[in-house]
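Team,

Forwarding the record for the chain on the shared tracking sheet. I've put the sequence and predicted structure together so nobody has to dig through attachments.
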Amino acid sequence: MANQIGDEGAQYFANALQINKTLTTVNLAINIIGDEGAQHLADALQINKTVTTINLRFNEIGYDAKKQLRQICEKNIGLEINLDVDDDKVEDEGEDEHEHVDEDEDEHVDKDEDEHVNEDDY
């Protein structure tokens, strides 16, 4: 069961992430985080270079906040953000919904060869 920290809890967590030097994987799935909370997390992830994976699936993150998270990933190529488009409130703008943002945990981008590789291939 999730903690349902919402936007306020995400803000507190984002404040902690700004000074974090040890956490590498963060799971905030199913926490009713909306655009405001996602904005706080995005701001923190611009500062934090330790986190490599953050799971934000099954929240209430809209299109603009997801777009900003994708932009963070473009700047920090070591960061993977997991989002779930089907369960988040997002308008279909016809854009590719993942650059470095993964929406399918079974697939990742091999950055050396820039091609999709299934985990089953390993």
